[in-house]
Amino acid sequence: MSQKGGSGELVRALDWRGAFWVAAGVPPLVLFSIGGIAGVAGKAAFVVWMISMVMGFLQSFTYAEMAGMFGNKSGGASVYGAQAWLRYSKLIAPLSVWCNWFAWSPVLSLGCAIAAGYILNALFPIPLADSQPVLDWVAANLANYTAETPAVVEYIANNAGTAPDAAIAAVAAADGVAALTPALRVWEAAAITIPGLGTLHFNSTFVIGVVLMLVIFAIQHKGIASTAKSQKWMAIVVLIPLLLVGLVPILTGAIDSMNVTNIVPPTASYSGVDGTWDIGGWTLFLGAMYIAAWSTYGFETAVCYTAEFKDPRTDTFQAIFYSGLLCVVFFFLIPFAFQGVLGTSGMLAPGIIDGTGIGEALGGLVGGGPVVTQIFVILMILALFLAIMTAMAGSSRTLYQGSRDGWLPRYLGHVNEHGAPTSAMWTDLAFNVFLLALASDAAGYFYVLAISNVGYITFNFLNLNAGWIHRIDSPHLDRPWKAPTVLIGINTVLAFVNALFLGAGAKVWGYNNALWSGAIFAALILPVFWYRHYVQDKGHFPKEAMEDLGLSDHGDLGPRRAGMLPYLALAAGAAVVLWANWFFQLPG
């Protein structure tokens, strides 16, 4: 491996500590969906996070073993697991890589959408209905409203029993807020509806989000070592206060036991009313597990940089193990503290659900005043930057290695003089500009998340099964760290548990077609792979990709010692998804 960029190779400039700091952007992912999961899981929300985190930690041991087997590859667990499927189908291997990429990549757009919301709130706040400017506006304009004013009539019709005076006051206050809202908050250059997908919003959130993406791109342009240094200091600044947020309410007795006992799902999504463990309740719980996995499993990105480790034999396991321990702490503490203090009703506040009010909530959890709260708002923006940088670093390397292994177009294999995969980074950026337009309103945000997670659960299913396939087919490959066999077995079972989450959970987020939209997007790898493999490479894989499997002839994919078992695993996984999608139904 070259030690300098410009040769088409990554640079070995990282140890496990550097990868740990790059992966330190994963704990803030809890803040992306903490409100949404509280909405669908109710009082069971913090339990969802804990169970999901334990699953993610167990699964990481399979990924750690596979990462050590391919010390000269980057791109993460999906790349290492794809090698196991290569013998059984040329299509399954690139599907694993593709699904991992389109699951991780949207962190850029989703994170930038939330960060843009924070910046807009800080610079161009929407006034509160009880703020003095709004009260002054109402006082000056109240005489213009009567019981016959169309808006007042409509308000009374929609709120039966409301007295005319109360309706006039409510309508006037709403008009006052609208009149005093900065124009930039409602500005939109265009809105384009794409049938079957959603609406692209080119608004102020979109513009600010694109600027933030370009800033992060510039930081990562200088290579992984530079990125790790930036991540280290940003992580220290962000994670220490975030840890205090989890600990202070517990140590000061601020946790209300009523908020974390009588663990039941709600009667319906975002109802805030305790339900029961019937089919509808279990469906909501599994839907929460489905989305939580997108965050809690994410520290597997720590092994995206194997080809950039100075000593992959030792760095690989340490990077993912210690990153996992870090995530266990945060994914246990933060949801418990939030729910324990705020309760279900507090967790359903609009600012918690869409992410833009998390900073204020963090300040409130430690009992801080306005100054402390403002500090937490700034820290929240840094936390988002941390997560976004982690996502861009990992997802771009997945594209890079997919190109080097013959699955994705050749141009993605280019690196610059610093050893950064810039062609893959530009591709990531362009894809996320599109997603940012889709996610620039609250409805689009969770739609993007629900679809991208179809890819992530699919990747995890394929990769957890890849662990035992590698054991059977590639016993000759060196394993610097070998997982206990019992863990490989447990993680194989968890692969099918994840399939259950996928079938039952994708529908929970308000988009009945999310599962099928995600499946269609996953299928887009077929024309991409066909072009690379059959047009560019004339039906052969690169020689280096075959040598990684210990195969000298790149026309021979080696013996299939596992026989029909991988195909049976695929069939069983598909059956679990389809059965769960049929059996589990949302509350009436």
UniProtKB/TrEMBL annotation:
Subcellular location: Cell membrane
Pfam families, A to Z: AA_permease_2
Ranges that cross the membrane: 20-40, 46-64, 97-120, 202-221, 233-255, 279-299, 319-338, 375-400, 483-502, 514-531, 564-584
Membrane topology type: Multi-pass membrane protein
InterPro entries found in the cross-reference section: AA/rel_permease1, APC_superfamily
Principal localisation: membrane
Keywords, ordered alphabetically: Cell membrane, Membrane, Transmembrane, Transmembrane helix
Protein name per Swiss-Prot or TrEMBL: APC family permease
Organism annotation: Gemmobacter denitrificans
Lineage, opening ranks: Bacteria, Pseudomonadati, Pseudomonadota, Alphaproteobacteria, Rhodobacterales
